[in-house]
Each structure stands twice: as C-alpha cells, then as structure tokens.
TrEMBL record:
Keywords: Oxidoreductase, Signal. Residues 1-21 form the signal peptide. Residues 8-119 form the Saccharopine dehydrogenase NADP binding domain. Residues 123-367 form the Saccharopine dehydrogenase-like C-terminal domain. This is Saccharopine dehydrogenase. It comes from the Bacteria. It comes from Chryseotalea sanaruensis. Pfam families: Sacchrp_dh_C, Sacchrp_dh_NADP. GO terms for molecular function: oxidoreductase activity. InterPro entries: AASS, NAD(P)-bd_dom_sf, Sacchrp_dh-like_C, Sacchrp_dh_NADP-bd.
Length: 374
C-alpha cells in the first residue's frame, strides 16, 4: 500500500527555521518559506524545498497554506499572532515558535471552531520547560518552580558578549517587556532586567540571571503552583549596559523626530545591533538551562532538577537544536495523531501524558540534546 507523506510548510527559514525544516524533511514532504532569498538559499543547502513569499501578506498566505497538512511557525514575534490566526482560519494544525507577545488564548475559541490543534511557544524556554513542568504537575503538588535559561556565544567578545539567533527586535523585547512571576500565589510584575543574581554552572562558570517574562501561559494554566519564576542568563556585566541603553530611550517604540524624519529608536538599534550580534561563520555558542521543582509527591517531599548544557554540534547552532527539535518532536506527535487536543495548546498540555513526555525526551536524545535529571 502506497503511503503518502504528509506535507509540512515551515514559515520562516532563519537560523532556527531552516534547521527545523531539514529535520522534518527526513519524515515529511517539507517546504520552507521566507521573504529573504538569502535565507532560502541557506535552507536549500540542507536539501529542503523552498519558496519565496511575503508572509506579512495574509491573503497570499491563506492561498499558500492550502496544499499543506501541517504548519510550523518560525517568524519574528511581531508577525506571529496574525499568522497563527490566518493558519487557524485556513483549518490547519500548527506548531509555533514565534513567541508572539499577544495572549494566545485569544485564539482558543477560533481554533476550536475550526477544529484545529495549535501548539504555541514550543521552543526550549518557553517550550521544553513548560513540558517538564506539565509532566510533574500531574504527578506531584509543586510549591516552587524556577527556570534559568540562556543562549550565549562560547567566546566572550566585547562590547556585548552576546550573539542573537533570533530576530534582534525579539531579543530587545526581552529587555523591555515587564517580567511577570508568581510569589506566594500572587502575580508580581517588575521591569525586565530586575533582581540580578550571580549563578554558578558546572562547565560554564558564573552567569548573571535577571527577571524576564518567560512564564507566559504558565501563569494562566498553573494557578495551583504558588511560586514560579523564569530568569534569563547572560555573562556578568551585561545587565548594566542594557539598562543604560533602555533608560536612554534607545529601545523605545515611540517615534521621534530626527531632522524632519520620524523614526522609532528600537528600529535604529536593531539595525545597528544586528551586525554586532550576528554569529560569525564557524562561531560556536551554547544553551544552558536549569529547572528546579520542589513540592510533595505521594506524601513525600521531592525536589527535581533538570539540567541542559548543549553546544553547537557539527555546525548546527545549539539554540536552533534545543528550540527547533522540541518543536519538530511535537510536529510528529500531531502528524501521527498522538496529540489531537483542539484549540490553543501551550506546551505544558503536552507534558501531561507520560507517552508524549517520554517521546519528546527520546526524540531530543536521538539528536544529542540531553536533559540530565537529579
């Protein structure tokens, strides 16, 4: 009997999108779509079919989606919500890593109406952190959840000691979006980059953590957990200069007049920072994450710690691997019908079932992304 391969479209062929497309092409008929021909040329080198299109043209996107069975979203955050809405209206299932700022549950009723499964925030953190928490939340009473996570260049290079795999605008958004966390059952909101701490990691050294808005859907879906926080990691000293740039107004979205021309400072900064933050050919980076959960399981106090230290592997960036392969694992679960919950599904919903949790960990391990548990 002839088996027809499912057709998957990957929207966005950047550093993460192209890696996901190449991984999925081993099992599906995959097409990567992007506006940038340069990005498509890089994806083509990985034996991926490509198509050039303006993904901001939602009418064109609706037509583009018609022949495909499943959609993967890998566009910048500011485009993500409207693209997800268009995918839903087209009646397609989707796994998304655009991390758009809007509340994804605003699309829940629409997704249920169209009978589709939409998994949002399906990267490393948000993403795998949510999956891990979802798994343990079903099996214990968690009192404390902490996630520390960051992606950094292997070599520290002045002045920024940082390189971006994602859209520069999305990175800057981390530095200005208020950070939400849960303390003693109450929602706390602080400015981004607040409460810096120095934290030691084996095989890495000392990094600096600060409040970021990474809990996202967990604030809504895990009301039973009284203490939850996510912090971003950078090399020590990073926070101070980011605060200076922010307080100067250089990350502002409000237009200013410069010699009669209206400009947004954030656009200028993104333009200036991108070449500084761009990885050089052959430059390596790493992803580090530590998740700690404390609570009670079967009447006994328990503490679980998950550790991830992943490095560039055979030329494939770590952040692309840890983010992308989490997403592609979930694509497989949806494609074969293992996961079919209709509506908006943040990643913690997938972690509830042991079979899904084990599959994702195994899928990552096969691709040399290893989570150690203690």
């Amino acid at each position: 009997m002839l088996t027809i391969m499912k057709k998957v479209i990957v929207l966005g062929a950047g550093l993460v999108g192209k890696v996901m497309a190449a991984d999925l092409a081993k099992s599906f008929d995959v097409t990567a779509v992007d506006y940038s021909q340069d990005a498509l040329n890089e994806a083509a080198k990985l034996a991926v079919k490509t198509k050039q299109a303006d993904l901001s043209n939602l009418t064109e996107l609706s037509q583009l989606l018609k022949p495909f069975d499943l959609v993967v979203g890998a566009v910048p955050g500011f485009m993500g919500f409207n693209i997800a809405k268009t995918v839903i209206e087209a009646g397609k299932n989707m796994v998304d890593i655009s991390f758009f700022p809007e509340d994804p549950f605003l699309l829940d009723d629409l997704a249920k109406k169209h009978g589709v499964t939409i998994v949002t925030d399906c990267g490393v953190a948000p993403g795998m952190g949510n999956i891990i928490l979802g798994y343990h939340n079903k099996r214990m009473q968690i009192q404390q959840y902490e996630c520390l996570v960051g992606g950094l260049p292997l070599v520290r290079e002045w002045p920024y000691e940082y390189k971006a795999v994602f859209s520069p605008i999305d990175v800057i958004e981390e530095y200005i979006r208020p950070a939400r966390y849960v303390q003693n059952g109450a929602l706390v909101v602080k400015e981004a980059l607040s409460d810096p701490e120095l934290v030691h990691f084996d095989d890495v050294g000392t990094l600096e953590s600060w409040n970021s808005d990474g809990l996202r859907s967990l604030i809504r879906t895990m009301p039973n957990i009284p203490n939850m926080i996510e912090k971003t990691l950078r090399y020590p000293g990073c926070i101070e200069y980011l605060r200076v740039l922010r307080e100067t107004g250089l990350f502002s979205y409000e237009e200013i007049d410069v010699k009669g021309i209206k400009v947004r400072p954030v656009d200028v900064m993104a333009k200036l920072l991108f070449p500084k933050w761009k990885l050089k050919p052959g430059e390596e980076e790493f992803t580090v994450m530590r998740i700690v959960m404390e609570g009670e399981e079967a009447g006994v106090k328990k503490r679980y710690q998950y550790n991830l230290l992943d490095r560039t592997n055979n030329g494939t960036l770590s952040m692309a691997r840890t983010t992308g392969y989490t997403c592609t694992a979930v694509v497989h679960l949806i494609a074969d019908g293992s996961y079919s919950r209709k509506g908006i599904s943040p990643p913690e919903f997938l972690g509830e079932e042991k079979a899904h949790f084990d599959f994702i960990l195994s899928y990552l391990k096969e691709r040399e992304v290893h989570y150690s548990i203690s």
